[in-house]
Amino acid sequence: MKTKGAETKNKNINWRVSLTSGDEVIYKNLKELCDDQDINRTNVYRLANGVSKPTRKKNISSIEKIYLNSNIND
After folding, report:
1. Domain for residue 4, yes or no?
2. Which domain holds residue 61?
3. How confident is the model at residue 73 (pLDDT cuts 50, 70, 90)?
4. Long-range contact set of residues 53-61: C-beta below 8 Å, sequence gap at least 24
5. Does 18 map to a domain?
6. Selection from 21, 22, 50 nearest residue 65 by Cα
7. What is the rounded distance in angstroms from the CA atom of residue 32 to the CA atom of residue 38?
8. pLDDT, tens only, 26-60
9. Is 60 a member of any domain?
10. Alpha-carbon distance 30 to 42, whole Å?
């Protein structure tokens, strides 16, 4: 059975997308990133892990996972 991982919202992870225009966009969940940038979830993980380069999506420079620490004010 396939999981719908792109539709789940992990509150501890945000995604930072650096565009070739110099702008940065931060997404709160993976589904929103995939829909806005028209990119497959598997390719997002490959770009974030540095396994592949954005050859088809020329507007994307890099994708980075941002791990949010829930204990920042402790």
Report:
1. no
2. 12-67
3. very low
4. 58/20, 59/19, 59/20, 59/21, 60/17, 60/18, 60/19, 60/20, 61/18, 61/19, 61/20
5. yes
6. 50
7. 10
8. 999 999 999 999 999 999 999 999 888 877 788 99
9. yes
10. 11
